[in-house]
Specification:
Distance between the termini: 92 Å
Shape: elongated
Number of strands: 29
Number of helices: 9
Oligomer: single chain
Structural class: alpha+beta
Largest sheet: 6 strands, antiparallel, barrel
Strand order of the largest sheet: 1-4-5-8-7-6
Radius of gyration: 29 Å
Strand content: 35-45%
Helix content: 10-25%
Amino acid sequence: MQQLMRGLAALWLAALCASAAAQGRDLPDFTRLVEDQGAAVVNISTTQAVRRPTAGAVPQVPGMEDEEVLEFFRRFIPRQPGPGQGPGPGGPGGPRPESRSLGSGFIISSDGYILTNAHVVEGADEINVKLTDKRDFKAKVIGADKRTDVALIKIEGTGLPVVKFGDPAKLKVGEWVVAIGSPFGFENTVTAGIVSAKGRSLPQENFVPFIQTDVAINPGNSGGPLFNMRGEVIGVNSQIYSRTGGFMGLSFAIPADVALDIQKQLREKGRVARGRIGVVIQEVTRDLATSFGLDKPRGALVNSVEKGSPADKAGVEATDIIISYDGKPVDASSDLPRMVGSTRPGAQAALEVWRKGQTRKLNVTVGELQEDRVASRDTPKPKPQAEAPANRLGIVVAELSAEQKSQLKLANGLVVTDVRPDAKAEVRKGDVLVMLVHKGQHIELKSVEQFNKLLAGLDKTSVLTLQVRRGESMAFVTISGLTDKG
């Protein structure tokens, strides 16, 4: 009996070991990938002379400009005090103060071209690159593109190890990925995780369909490569979502195809030429789709068209919904800037728009996107006229005077003079209501009487949309449901 029990125990132990071994085989092994590709990943350090602020200047804190709208989307690059900073000899006659930064990059050609993030090398007076074999090089910036956060730098070398690239389009959510970089200056640190999502749009970042991962990324990983399990670079680590400045499980990488297109232009021209058509757009919500008679929420709703722009010349109108660009569907408004931006200026592109319940096809000659400009002045806000009673939206409106129409360059419109606490419409005093859209009908607003009569004829559960002028901007505001009476 004892022998039988010992035999059964041995069989059970063997089965357990076999199961554990099988489970172990199911787990990914990154060792070969790191051995093959790690040598092409470099540590980047930069120095920058500290420019002393002028007297009375208000210090600015990067990443803290708009916390009410955003959580912290941080680009991650640690800065260390250099000689002359903090206590010690840093005044006149002492060592020149410097700001030191650490980041990562990877070699893409054997003669020394390296990809990294634009914010890693921004403002640098000196760039140092260290390889895994401890060799140090001085690097020069070939070009940098802030809009995509991609930079191309160059070191003088031959026979250098290089990475190989994969196709981000073939990347699947849930797939294992690996990052190699220098978090906090710890060179060639390897972290792994999975792809959490693809095609992410981040605030202020309209030209990159980010790859989201849960790979541990920290300050110093900026510009490092993101590998698939075949050892191919499919992304450039660029940003993290963090309330603390450290890793919180949300990391974002620039797709490799985007980075390669940018570096090609930087290498050839030193700058990036990006397309534009001259429209201001917003997302199409379910309620907006209902108001415009569209089958489902999709496309980019055109708020306004710049006069004389490529879109204007092509016949695009405000209230159009662009549902296709150059033969590709525009599923979300964030898709359009990327599609247009990746088009070479001067190229022809086909547009399909939804206009007043029908699709129309237009052809546009794409222009070139210039650097951002700051508006020199604000449009004068219209002055309220004699008030009318609150309508079924809970707002009070008045007709524009001839002077206001001239200032705003509007043929017609109604100015909001009061907004009641229980108002159904998210508008403000001073907003100008230009058009009402309901079930695909576009109705220009010309008088208070006309507007209130239109509202009176709608069902209590109606979904409608207002085109609103606020300052120099146009927007569409959707209202779901009306009060029983004004």
